[in-house]
Amino acid sequence: MVALRTAVDVARAVASGELSAAAVVEENLAAIDAREGEVHAFNVVTAERARECAAQIDADVKAGRNVGRLAGVTVALKDNMCTRGVETTCSSRILAGWKPPYDGTVVRRLVDAGAVMVGKTNLDEFAMGSSTENSAFGPTRNPLDTSRVPGGSSGGSAAAVAAGFATVSFGSDTGGSIRQPASLCGLVGVKPTYGMVSRQGLIAFGSSLDQIGPFTSTVADAALLMEVIAGHDPLDSTSLPQPAPELMSVLSHGVEGMRIGRITDMTEGSSPDVLERLDAAFDALRNAGATVVDVQMPSMSYGLTAYYLVAPAEASSNLARFDGVRYGLRVDAKDLNSMYGDTRAAGFGDEVKRRIMLGTYALSAGYYDAYYGKALKVRRLIADDFAKAYESCDVILTPTSPTVAFKFGDKTNNPLAMYLCDVFTIPTNLAGHAAMSVPFGTGEAGLPVGVQVLAPALGEAPMFRVAAELERSA
Amino acid sequence: MPESISRETVAKVARLARLHLNDEEVDRMTSQLAGMLEHFRDVDALDLANVEPLNQPIPLSNVMRDDVEVPSLDRDEVLANAPAAQDGRFRVPPIIGFEE
Question: Within a domain: residue B66?
């Protein structure tokens, strides 16, 4: 296994001239050469662009010009984030070959801060899945055990960091698509508060749920990246009107006096190895001076059910734009409607079709109140449960994923079994809150187990304090 | 809660979604959607009568910007991605005259 560098160390060493950005890029490219064939983290590796970008940063350092907070930090970006002139596909045949005419806001902020993009990473098609087995371009393998999945949908981004292909990476999280792969690959993964990070240039899946966030090998790296990418963006009308939170400065604050919630009525089964690590995490925080408080979330187990109506409904609307007119695939036909239908039939994979159908049905006349309307009411109950729980605690700890990384094919024939991977992560998205997964030891087969820290909206600072404490005691 | 989904409804929804499905796909989709909708019956255990739906997690009032000119995307770069373009516009097959 390659020794992983941290973004904090790289940025400091590159800015001071101790380390060249070029050397970091070459290290990553060598790791990619050695293992990308078996891992398949990337849809495209942008080696030449990375070398040019690194050379520019090294020249800036040599000339004494200002370099950004991420000088020389290599990043891999989930292939649903628009990058100008670099193919962006959502791992779907319908967008194969598309080169966006602009960079998304997060991409621009990263580049402005001196980050160096090394490639675009594989995902479940349009971010719909929990294993990265649903990519039109083939699955990604978990670098820690290539007979197992890396999780999903941001599996390529998680694998890229775990394999040493990039210092850090970014994914998007609609129902757990950052936190679950982070957990399965032994990384830190953050789902920021809804509206904290601009979604401009993120190809939309569920617009009331989606957030971009980082994958890193340390909590401090995640804090640094959040400080760079968060904050208001006039190009995203759901972006909150406030600056990025200060997170680096809270990491050393400890958890003395903090109240950590433990959900006592969550019925879904986690495997014993995962529960053992969760108990150990509560013990560690108690030993560090926090109090563990029992809380109830009676509606939480309905989150999965509500999510699988709300997310497909929003997706069916968002994916209407893939119609063979402006970009991507077109299957020629005699008239416009036939062209739409044939193009979409040829371009979308099975899972995407299933969700478009479910979402269209749930929104159609006669069924709206029975399905979508009810799901939105369940969503309210979950938000109310959280509001009540946070009256008595500052953050809540749960497993991130019910199990460690599973084997290929284990869940592909049963959509509901696959959906259950996200039972602990989905409620956060429904409520618009913040959450992150932190590695906390290992379980079955020596594979990593992640603990999830949940926080209310804009609760990133207490969430990072707890995450940093867990990292210190892991 | 409506009755389980029919094959005819699935075919109609596919038309609404502009998604051509063959007969075998309609059959498979009918059984898979029926399974998912069956699962959704779980929520019937909840009393939702007086619950307000939650559409957006964090309510923001309508967001407006000042009406000022800003640079837009480069037309040639955008059209270079189009499956078909002509005279600076997207080209599409006939829209009327071929309706089923």
Answer: no
